[in-house]
Structure formats: structure tokens, C-alpha cells
Amino acid sequence: MPVAFRIMPSSGLVYVRFEGQLLIDEIIEAFESYARNPLADPGQKHLVDLSRVTGITWDYLKLMRLQAIKAGFFCGHGAQTLKVYVCPTDLSLEVSRMILRSWEGVDAVVPLLQRQPDEALSVLGLQQDRFSDLFADHG
Fold first, then answer.
1. Which residue, 14, 16, 25, 111, is the most exposed by fewest CB within 10 angstroms?
2. Does domain 3-134 have CATH number 3.30.750.24?
3. How far is the C-alpha of 115 from the C-alpha of 113, rounded, in Å?
4. Cα dist. 138→45, 62, 77 in Å?
């Protein structure tokens, strides 16, 4: 599956990795799995790694469905979710910009783009300098 997530409760962080050709149905499936996880919480920070994306099949109706599912999870809980998208390639930047547009007008989510992984970790207020350090510190 081109979408995977890992919840790191000790830091209040969710790491989400996208890779390969992205399909909206698989993204919906992964998000619904995250939302059902007992460790999932609307206030968690999200580090979204798009560095390994090689393509995406845009289906705007399914994308709208995905955003409605996400809005239902993130909105109405009195929490704000910081989502930092790591997009070092031109394609990942294009995908990130599309995602950012989908969050316009949703106050419960604060989406940011970062071209470099180390900058993303810093924006999230994490002590680690590299993704590998982040995973080592969280087993």
C-alpha cells in the first residue's frame, strides 16, 4: 500500500508516508484505519512525507469524499491539527499544493509545506534532526 502511518503517542506525532503511485481509494482506506485507531486524536501533529511519491491519479469526486471524511475527524473537537508536508521533489510539491488548497477555510487544520525533512522536524518542534533519529527515539 502506498500509504502508511505510525502514531507516536509520546511526542503527540503521527508520521504518514506516501510512496509510489497514489490512489485516492487507498488514501481513504488508510485514513479511516488511522481514525479508528484508539491512539488517534484530532490534536496530534502530523508529519506527512511525500518524498517518495512517483505519481497520483486525481479523482476529484473521491478527493472531495476524502476531505469530508477528514473534516469530520478533525473539526468540531476544539483542537487544531498541525500538518507539515515534506515535499522535496517537484511532484511532491505539486501534490502538497493541491492538498493545501483542500484545507482552505478549515480552521481546525493548519497545513504547512516544507521542502526539507529537517526543516519539517523543526517546525513541528521536535528535537530530532533526521527522520531516522525520530524513528530510533520512538522504537
1. 25
2. yes
3. 7
4. 15, 34, 27
